[in-house]
């Protein structure tokens, strides 16, 4: 009887050992999969996130954790709001993919999309971080910027320069300044259109570079305020405002006035003395033949 | 007889001992089974836990992907997730958490300004990032009081950067970026000039750096012309401190005619338009300097 028992036992042991071996292989495979998961998407589960994970998986009472995590998320939302305001850039999405992760070096692919005021952008780049003693050295490579530059002619040469020099910070600093200057222009144009609706019109919309001034009784004579925002290859943003005139030849022949032919130059001196808003307004006043100045 | 009985007792004892031993082993067998069973069970729990985690990971990824999509397309499309309602709220929070982390990380890399509220919202610490050609360099910090008015309380901006006058010229009470943008421009231009100088020293051993200043706004280099072995002193002045290209290039040489020669005129404009370490590569290739 004793012998029979030990025989049964060794049978059990064999079965169990096989089962264990099988389970070990399964666990190892799952662990590899999990590691890949962590590599693929930067779900670095630490602290509260790790806790939350175990609650989700462990079917434990999650109420408490939910509170902790919602508080944590709230804090992050707050941080993001502050950061968005400070940087003047709203980000919609950021996806990362780890391409290489060895002891000292981490290479990640980033795809970030968002907008700066009305300007929509998407940037892709590789970020490599190499640990050097206490600090890590971060480098950007393979920068690719996608923007609709169809109506931003002067932006494209800057863009290609930025891609070449992989100067991500310069790109965003310039984009922000460019967008701010465009907003200034829009605000000014809209202000004048509302204030002088009979004289001012914005044929290309309030975000375009052109404002036309035209007295209702002088349909042949049109003045254009051409306000462009120039971007140099170095990323220098400068508004350029010009006054252009369209006055019939005949009128010019009949009234060869200095005021009209020299209008463009005169406007430049006005700009220097009064600044853009006041200079444009004084031209508007002149066109509207206003008596109340 | 007595001997036999003694033998008998001893052999009886030894028999008992053997029996006791053999009795001991059978109970050992089941405990080995128990051990293995426990091990198998532990492994099963581990496997189930891993499976659950991987499943959760998948759901999180899906949730996150649809969140990213929603953000870009602005259209509400309720994702069908096979998550029990009890955990869905928690999962949603977790997905949002990862998204927020990534967005903040992106801001850290691309934005140029990192801001932290300090002293329970009474203060602000802004860190300005500098980089040149994709390489991140020093960070500079500004500590600010928010009340009664925005004021810089501490900073580690180099003294030769005109922080005070930039703050005075700015409109920082209403828009802090009117201070940060020009400041960042100064700091990045400085970092760029400094990095260029470092690269000149690293890449061009044959070029001697005769003089440079802390702001890296003045740089005097000595070149050697290959055949004649004459020395050329080249001074680069960066009077616009918000730029990393020189505003004036000047050559000095025993051969008085050299600076006015067409090649060196070309070199002069090259140095005005190209970062110095890159311009030197071109000049070497052209055979103008050693």
Structural write-up:
The complex is a heterodimer of chains A (293) and B (290). Chain A is of the alpha+beta class. Chain A contains 9 helices and 8 strands. Chain A has helices at residues 2-40, 47-58, 63-87, 153-165, 168-195, 249-254, 258-261, 263-274, 276-287; strands spanning 90-101, 105-116, 119-132, 135-147, 200-201, 210-213, 222-231, 237-246. In chain A, strand 2 and strand 3 (119-132) form a beta hairpin. In chain A, helix 8 (263-274) crosses helix 9. With 290 residues, chain B is an alpha+beta fold. Chain B has 3 domains: 22-103; 110-190, Copper Amine Oxidase, Chain A, domain 1 (2-Layer Sandwich), CATH 3.30.457; 205-285, Enolase-like, domain 1, CATH 3.30.390. Chain B has helices at 2-73, 85-110, 163-169, 177-203, 262-273, 276-285, and strands at 113-118, 123-132, 135-145, 151-155, 208-212, 218-224, 231-237, 248-253. In chain B, strand 1 and strand 2 (123-132) form a beta hairpin. The longest helix of chain B has 72 residues, at 2-73. In chain B, 29% of the residues are buried. Chains A and B meet through helix 1, helix 2, helix 3, strand 1 and strand 2 of A and helix 1, helix 2, strand 1, strand 2 and helix 4 of B.
By DSSP (H or I, 4+ residues per run), the number of helices of chain B equals 6
Biggest interface found = A-B, 77 and 76 residues
State the separation between the terminal residues of chain B, measured CA to CA. Answer: 117 Å
* Helix proportion of chain B: 40-55%
The sequence of SSEs of chain B as H and E is HHEEEEHHEEEEHH
Average per-residue pLDDT of chain A, rounded, comes to 82
**β-strand number of chain B:** 8
Strand-pairing-aware structural class of chain B: alpha+beta
Strand content of chain A: 25-35%
Rg calc of chain B: 38 Å
Major beta sheet summary of chain B:
4 strands, antiparallel
What is the number of domains of chain B? 3
- How many individual β-strands of chain A? 8
Order of SSEs of chain A, N→C?
A: HHHEEEEHHEEEEHHHH
| Shape verdict of chain A | elongated
Number of domains of chain A: 3
Lateral strand order in the biggest sheet of chain A:
1-2-3-4
Alpha plus pi helix count of chain A:
9
| Net shape of chain B | elongated
């Amino acid at each position: 009887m004793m012998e029979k028992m030990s025989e049964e036992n060794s049978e059990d042991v064999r079965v169990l050992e096989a089962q264990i071996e099988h389970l070990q292989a399964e666990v190892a495979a799952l662990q590899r999969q999990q590691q890949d998961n962590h590599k693929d998407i930067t779900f670095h589960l630490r602290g509260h996130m790790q806790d939350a994970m175990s609650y989700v998986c462990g079917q434990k009472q999650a109420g408490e954790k939910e509170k902790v995590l919602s508080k944590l998320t709230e804090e992050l939302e707050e941080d993001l709001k502050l950061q968005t305001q400070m940087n003047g850039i709203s980000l919609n999405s950021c996806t990362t993919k780890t391409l290489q992760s060895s002891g000292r070096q981490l290479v990640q692919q980033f795809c970030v999309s968002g907008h700066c005021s009305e300007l929509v952008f998407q940037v892709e780049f590789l970020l490599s971080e190499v640990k050097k003693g206490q600090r890590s050295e971060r480098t950007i490579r393979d920068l690719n910027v996608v923007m609709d530059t169809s109506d931003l002619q002067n932006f494209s040469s800057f863009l290609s320069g930025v891609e070449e020099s992989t100067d991500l910070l310069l790109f965003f600093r310039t984009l922000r300044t460019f967008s701010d200057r465009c907003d200034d222009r829009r605000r000014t144009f809209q202000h004048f259109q509302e204030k002088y609706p009979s004289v001012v019109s914005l044929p290309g919309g309030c975000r375009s570079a052109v404002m036309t001034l035209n007295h209702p009784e002088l349909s042949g004579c049109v003045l254009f305020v051409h306000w462009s925002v120039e971007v140099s290859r170095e990323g220098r943003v400068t508004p350029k405002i010009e006054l252009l005139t369209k006055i019939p030849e005949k009128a010019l022949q009949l009234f060869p006035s200095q005021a009209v032919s020299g209008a463009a130059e005169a406007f430049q001196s006005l700009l220097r003395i009064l600044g853009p808003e006041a200079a444009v307004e004084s031209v508007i006043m002149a066109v509207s033949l206003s008596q109340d100045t | 007889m007595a001997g036999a009985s003694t033998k008998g007792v001893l052999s009886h004892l030894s028999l008992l001992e053997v029996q006791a031993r053999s009795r001991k082993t059978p109970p050992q067998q089941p405990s080995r089974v128990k051990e293995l069973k426990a091990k198998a069970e532990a492994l099963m729990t581990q496997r189930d836990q891993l499976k659950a985690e991987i499943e959760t990971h998948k759901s999180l990824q899906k949730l996150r992907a649809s969140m990213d999509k929603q953000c870009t397309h602005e259209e509400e499309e309720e994702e069908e997730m096979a998550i029990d309602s009890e955990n869905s709220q928690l999962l949603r929070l977790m997905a949002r958490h990862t998204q927020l982390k990534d967005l903040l990380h992106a801001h850290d890399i691309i934005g140029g300004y990192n801001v932290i509220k300090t002293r329970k919202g009474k203060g602000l610490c802004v860190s300005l990032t500098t980089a040149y050609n994709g390489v991140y360099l020093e960070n500079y910090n500004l500590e600010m009081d928010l009340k009664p008015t925005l004021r810089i309380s501490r900073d580690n901006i180099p003294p030769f950067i005109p922080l005070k006058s930039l703050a005075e010229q700015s409109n920082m009470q209403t828009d802090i970026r009117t201070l940060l943008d020009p400041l960042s421009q100064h700091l990045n231009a400085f970092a760029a000039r400094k990095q260029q100088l470092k690269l000149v020293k690293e890449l061009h051993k044959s070029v001697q750096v005769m003089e440079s200043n802390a702001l890296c706004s003045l740089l005097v280099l000595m070149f050697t012309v290959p055949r004649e072995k004459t020395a050329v002193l080249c001074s680069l002045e960066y009077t616009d401190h918000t730029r990393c290209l020189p505003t004036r290039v000047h050559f000095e040489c025993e051969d008085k005619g050299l600076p006015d020669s067409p090649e060196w005129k070309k070199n002069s404009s090259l140095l005005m338009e190209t970062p110095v370490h890159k311009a030197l590569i071109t000049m070497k290739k052209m055979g103008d300097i050693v």
